[in-house]
Amino acid sequence: MTGAGGGARLEAVRGDITREDVDVIVNAANRSLLGGGGVDGAIHRAGGPGILAECRALRATRFPEGLPTGDAVATGAGLLPARWVIHTVGPVHSGREDRSGLLWSCYRRSLQVADELGATSVAFPAVSAGVYGWPMEDAARIAVAATREAIGSTGIRRVRFVLFGDDALRDFSAALDQR
Ligand code: APR
Fold first, then answer.
1. By alpha-carbon position, which residue is closest to atom 8 of ligand 1?
2. Catalytic residue positions?
3. Is 90 near ligand 1, meaning CB less than 6 Å away?
4. CATH class of residue range 2-177
5. Are 20 and 81 in contact (CB under 8 A)?
């Protein structure tokens, strides 16, 4: 499925994000930047130790307290086909408080950082929709809306939402169908 976002091409596909041959792969990281499970684990496993080494250097310099939720930072991509990995920290879903703004920020900041790198193609996973418990349909709605809002002020031409399951693909495709 595709959906125009400021002239850029947005699409939802099923697949393993570590195999995406794009300029930037976005990682659903945690504040430590020191790895984890899910997408984070897959990227570090497939990308090799160089990515973690750069993350450790970021913790020792720019982010001694860790990467704030909603922010994004780039490293190289190690052995991955991409050129960069942009690590972003999604919010943990809460039934009591609305953290949508933080999830929105993950997409906006990741696209800003990608644009600063000169990237023109970006692959996103469904940030926060795994371990962090965000309902997939709402995660997809926010991902697409935030991307459409942010992409117009960048030189990014292609965004691929790379999804691990059929339900996720269905929800992201539906979100792309909404104008
Ligand atoms: N490619 C694409 N999507 C994937 C992959 C993959 N290789 N592996 C998992 N996913 C999907 C999950 O099925 C889910 O839909 O990515 C989505 C995000 O799930 P998580 O990786 O659990 O990310 P998140 O919910 O943001 O939780 C982040 O989990 O792995 C830890 O270190 C990470 O603490 C952080 C937390």
1. 39
2. 40
3. yes
4. alpha beta
5. yes
State the distance from the centre of ligand 1 to the C-alpha of 10, rounded, in angstroms.
20
pLDDT at 1: 47
Answer whether 55 contacts ligand 1 (Cβ < 6 A): no
- Which residue ranges in the chain fall short of pLDDT 70? 1-6
Q: What is the pLDDT of residue 2?
A: 54
Q: If you search the block for the tokens 């990515």, which residue do you land on?
A: 51
Domain positions in the chain: 2-177
Number of residues in the chain: 179
Q: What is the pLDDT of residue 4?
A: 47
Cβ–ligand 1 distance for 171 under 6 Å, the answer no
Ligand 1 pocket, mutate which of 34, 39, 52, 99 (most atoms under 8 A from CB): 39
Per-residue confidence (pLDDT) for residue 179, from 0 to 100? 83
* Contacts (Cβ under 8 Å, ≥6 apart) of 134: 90, 91, 93, 103, 127, 128
- pLDDT per position as a tens digit, 117-128: 999 999 999 999
Question: Measuring CA to CA, which residue among 24, 45, 2 is closest to residue 125?
Answer: 24
Q: How many CA atoms lie within 13 A of 143 on its CB side?
A: 37
CB atoms within 10 A of CB 64: 8
